């Protein structure tokens, strides 16, 4: 072997990325029994490296109230990650970014924006939607603007 050290370094790198790929991120999703778009959002999370615990709820507004989801930010399902809420059809990349933000109560994609993750309809475009942060002080902050497509 020409360069055993280099080969060893390469295999450490490879093993490292494999371990990373296998490490799923736990998240809890609360939803109504009859919500189809909620199930589709759960699939979106699973496709992006999350391990989802699915909770079927009889009273979603009680769940939202308990987690501090302001009614103006409301959507269908409510997820919880590291004690913070994720309200509605939030893209996985935004959920990942939320993990490091302990100054926030949570993030939301208010409403049911057509074309957002889990709200795709064949042959239909996506409408514009926003991701909003809710700070622990109760302030809304715009995080991202997803344009219509
Ligand atoms: Cu929905």
The CATH class label is: Alpha Beta
What CATH calls the topology is Glutaredoxin
What is the name of the CATH architecture? 3-Layer(aba) Sandwich
Order of helices and strands: HEHEHEEHEEE
* Tally of contiguous helical segments: 4
Can I get a quick summary?
This protein has 149 residues and is an alpha/beta fold.
List the helices and strands and how they pair.
Layout: H1 4-22, E1 25-32, H2 36-47, E2 50-57, H3 60-67, E3 78-81, E4 84-88, H4 92-98, E5 104-109, E6 129-135, E7 140-146
Parallel strand pairs: 1-2, 4-5
Antiparallel strand pairs: 1-3, 3-4, 5-6, 6-7
This protein binds copper (II) ion.
Copper (II) ion binds at residues 37-38, 75-76, 89, 112, 119.
Q: Any overview of this molecule?
A:
By secondary structure, the chain is of the alpha/beta class. The protein has one domain (26-146): 3-Layer(aba) Sandwich (Glutaredoxin). Helix content is 31%, strand content 30%. The chain contains four helices and seven strands; from the N terminus they run αβαβαββαβββ. It has helices spanning 4-22, 36-47, 60-67, 92-98, and strands spanning 25-32, 50-57, 78-81, 84-88, 104-109, 129-135, 140-146. Strands 2-1-3-4-5-6-7 form a seven-stranded mixed β-sheet, sandwiched between helices. Helix 2 (36-47) links the parallel strand 1 and strand 2. The radius of gyration is 18 Å and the shape is globular. The model has no long low-confidence stretch (mean pLDDT 91). Copper (II) ion is lined by residues 37-38, 75-76, 89, 112, 119.
